[in-house]
Design brief:
Elements lengths: L1 E4 L8 E3 L10 E6 L2 E10 L13 E2 L8 H14 L3 H7 L17 E6 L7 H5 L3 H11 L4 E2 L3 H4 L3 H10 L3 E6 L16 H12 L5 E7 L5 H14 L3 E5 L7 H11 L3 E4 L5 H13 L4 E4 L11 E6 L17 H12 L2 E6 L4 H8 L4 E5 L10 E6 L11 H12 L3 E5 L8 E3 L17 E3 L4 E3 L6 E3 L12 E3 L3 H11 L5 E4 L7 H12 L5 E4 L12 E6 L13 H13 L10 E6 L5 H7 L3 H15 L6 E9 L4 H20 L5 E2 L3 E8 L2 E10 L2 H17 L7 E6 L6
Parallel strand pairs: 9-14, 9-15, 10-12, 10-13, 11-12, 13-14, 16-26, 17-24, 17-25, 23-24, 25-26
Antiparallel strand pairs: 1-2, 1-4, 3-4, 3-5, 6-7, 6-8, 18-22, 19-20, 20-21, 27-30, 27-31, 28-30, 29-30
Helix pairs in contact: 1-11, 4-6, 7-8, 19-20
The structure holds adenosine-5'-diphosphate (ADP) and zinc ion (2 copies).
One zinc ion binds next to loops.
Length: 725
């Protein structure tokens, strides 16, 4: 009998019979209800019950698609995240393999080259074919050439290649690796701080160890981990590098390729399923020396792993926000422990979780405290909005500073974390307000497309600048990127502006084109959202202006100050990466706030220390562990009622089992109760220790799944939730 994880939202596996023994991680096609589904074998057991079991329809893998380590990782995740095993296992597979197909290698790249010692004199053989002749001459002087390169140069190359091969003039091969090792660009010489850090990482190759590389922006963290990666590759091992989605630009890929030299494969959401499968396969075969990917790349199989890097480890995009809600950084650490290799977490502003682990000696801290070369950290100066009121979002000191910089042909970033024109629109005559019908939220006016849009559910409706009720002029309050753009155009008609937000850069290619334009100096003022904060190296930018910094100070989310601090230091890091006189102006109504003052001093240490103490006192993560039940329903109160039922159940179980220290808060409506037409509620459970929390959740979830109300609403459990809105 084999136990199979079937991709359905149930926290259990299903039993089938099989003629042959099957290893865990093997994909099988199994009958389930009225259909066949692709499941993963979790274990084999002697047949027990009296039930007559169905047999497996087909075995899809010769060798298991999930390697033993990945299988263990997923098996551990299933327990830790209390998520249905079938969905967890299927998340660990490339999309292509979630379909009932056999595991066959993807096609390699085709290469051709001319035989060096001509077996035959080409002259005669080519006389009557100019295409073949040209192609032969082209190939004759070079080494292996990818047929992709022939595509544009030699129309009709396919037939010509075939003919030349038949005439024994050229040879054709498929390679998965580049046939000749690519040139390694001479790496920069590390400064002593960097060298120390790199040495430290290299000393730990071959054993599990978690290192936190905390280095201020522009201190050369990337160079450090690339150096360690290079060392790994020289030893014949593979490296997995995780980066946040928006940092994975062609520039970064090129930089990694240039420095590592070997075969570097990428993995991100913009790729086709086929292309992703190819990376998966290359890594699994050991052909890829390095894999550079986003969140889900943590599940890439590696034949001979040597090192895992998680760049910008504090970034919240590492947390999956729906379905199987894993945290890729945490899984990377677990994975490194299973693989017995080191993992390096890099950040200028590490997560409090990482710093907490440094304090308790689970992680080793490595620091880079200097910027590379002549670059200094920019001065950060608050602009008091009480003294200098903003008009269309812009205060006088900010306008003056922008003027000065563009007069000197330096570039300026204007950072505002909100797209659109204005987030609050109302009519003073009839008191009409632009609100979303499907959410508890206001609509943002988008002036370019003449639309009101909901940034939560995506709802759009046409709109003008006059009231839809009474036709009086509407009042626009608050500022978004479009309003700033319009205001700057009015003030600096000569300047070249570029707006970088999800509306303008709505495809990866548009974003890359704009980033290129900035880098090559074709832009004077960049107006952008978070899209511009991550890792980009713009050497021409000497001034960063932050339009609205205050949101983080008053949010109900306990993580808001941390996120605000991280974002402000990240965006500040874009100023003066090449020059010595970088400056950051932050518009705020609270220049005296302690957080503002710590930002001004770039003092992340003081901030994180204070924050950790506060969290400790309040019983918040990382000093305690959170688990959040969420429920939603189109019926008002259904979600809340379900969670109240769950709350009672949890309290009773905790009492019956004698579980101590687990606090079950009251079920409440979510901060934004209505979203996309559904009413939402949540129930927070917390504990200072993981053990009792997880023991209780185990029993609680089984009881909840078995309860008759379980199907009345959509519900889920989020372990270590990041977003509690
Ligand atoms: P971080 O990742 O800490 O922001 P990077 O590794 O991107 O920093 O380095 C910032 C810039 O400095 C990059 O352009 C990089 O090529 C350059 N750089 C890093 N280390 C050195 C070094 N030792 N010598 C010269 N240039 C360096
Ligand atoms: Zn009106
Ligand atoms: Zn909405």
């Amino acid at each position: 009998m084999v136990q199979v994880a079937v991709p359905v939202p149930l926290r259990r596996h299903f039993d089938y019979t099989s003629d042959t023994a099957l290893a865990p991680g093997t994909r099988v096609l199994v009958p389930f209800g009225r259909q066949n589904l692709v499941g993963v074998v979790v274990s084999t057991a002697p047949q027990s019950g009296k039930h007559k079991l169905k047999s497996i329809a087909r075995v899809l893998d010769q060798t298991p698609s999930l390697s033993p380590t990945l299988f263990s990782l997923l098996d551990w995740s299933k327990v830790y995240y209390h998520h249905p095993v079938g969905e967890v296992m299927s998340t660990g597979l490339p999309v292509v393999l979630r379909a009932p197909i056999d595991l066959t290698p993807p096609k390699g790249h085709q290469y051709v080259r001319a035989y060096s010692e001509g077996k035959v004199a080409p002259g005669e053989l080519l006389q009557r074919s100019p295409v073949q002749s040209k192609l032969y001459q082209f190939l004759n002087n070079r080494d292996w050439t990818s047929t992709e390169q022939l595509e544009s140069r030699f129309p009709g190359w396919r037939r010509a290649v075939k003919a030349l091969e038949q005439k024994s003039l050229i040879e054709v091969e498929q390679f998965h690796r580049e046939p000749a090792p690519a040139q390694i660009k001479t790496a920069v010489k590390l400064n002593p701080e960097q060298q120390d850090a790199a040495n430290h990482i290299c000393r730990h190759l071959g054993k599990f160890h978690t290192l936190l590389l905390q280095g201020i922006t522009g201190s050369g963290k990337t160079e450090v981990y690339l150096k360690a990666a290079r060392e790994c590759i020289d030893r014949g091992q593979q490296v997995l590098i995780l980066v946040p989605e928006i940092s994975l630009t062609p520039q970064l890929v090129k930089r990694v390729r240039d420095q590592l030299g070997g075969t570097v494969c990428t993995l991100h959401s913009g790729m086709t399923d086929r292309a992703r499968f190819k990376t998966w396969w290359m890594a699994r075969q050991g052909y890829a020396d390095a894999v550079l990917g986003t969140r889900s790349a943590v599940f890439t199989p590696l034949n001979n792993p040597g090192l895992i890097v998680v760049d910008e480890e504090h970034d919240i995009s590492y947390k999956q926000q729906d379905g199987f809600r894993y945290h890729a950084r945490d899984l990377a650490i677990k994975r490194a422990s299973l693989e017995k290799i080191p993992v390096v977490l890099g950040s200028a502003t590490p997560s409090l979780e990482a710093l907490y682990n440094v304090r308790s000696n689970r992680f080793k801290l490595l620091r880079l405290n200097q910027r590379i070369g002549a670059a200094r950290l920019p001065s950060i100066i608050p602009v008091d909005l009480n003294a200098y009121p903003a008009v269309h979002g812009l205060s006088q000191p900010v306008l003056q500073a922008i003027r000065q910089r563009i007069d000197q042909s330096e570039q300026v970033i204007v950072y505002i974390n909100r797209r659109g024109y204005a987030p609050m629109v109302r009519c003073y005559q009839c008191l009409w307000e632009a609100v979303c019908e499907r959410c508890d939220a206001r609509l943002t006016y988008h002036h370019k497309s003449r639309q009101f849009r909901c940034h939560h559910c995506g709802h759009k409706q046409p709109g003008e600048e006059s009231c839809p009720n009474c036709d009086s002029p509407l009042h626009f309050a608050g500022t978004g990127t479009q309003r700033i753009e319009q205001a700057l155009l009015g003030k600096f008609p000569q300047a070249r502006l570029c707006r970088l937000d999800r509306d303008e850069a709505n495809t990866a290619n548009k974003l890359y084109r704009q980033l290129d334009a900035i880098r090559s100096g074709d832009v004077d003022i960049i107006i952008g959202t978070q899209l511009i904060t991550k890792g980009h190296d713009f050497s021409g930018v000497s001034l960063v202006c932050v339009i609205n910094a205050d949101q983080g100070l008053f949010s109900t989310d306990f993580r808001a100050p941390e996120l605000m601090f991280q974002q402000l230091l990240q965006v500040s890091g874009r100023a003066g990466r090449a020059a010595a006189n970088g400056e950051v102006l932050i518009q705020t109504a609270y220049p005296g706030d302690p957080i503002m003052q710590m930002i001004q001093k770039h003092d992340y240490d003081a901030f994180s220390t204070a924050c950790l103490t506060e969290r400790e006192q309040a019983g918040y993560p990382p000093s305690a562990y959170f688990a959040l039940y969420r429920a939603e329903s189109v019926k008002q109160n259904a979600a809340l009622n379900f969670l109240r039922h769950s709350e009672k159940m949890g309290n009773k179980l905790a009492h019956d089992l004698g579980v101590e220290g687990v606090e079950i808060l009251s079920a409440v409506p979510s901060p934004m109760e209505k979203l996309a037409g559904r009413y939402r509620a949540q129930l927070l459970v917390r504990c200072r220790n993981r053990g009792p929390l997880h023991a209780l959740l185990d029993r609680w979830l089984s009881a909840l799944e078995a309860s008759s109300q379980s199907n009345s609403v959509r519900w889920s459990l989020d372990i270590d939730p990041m977003d509690m809105s």
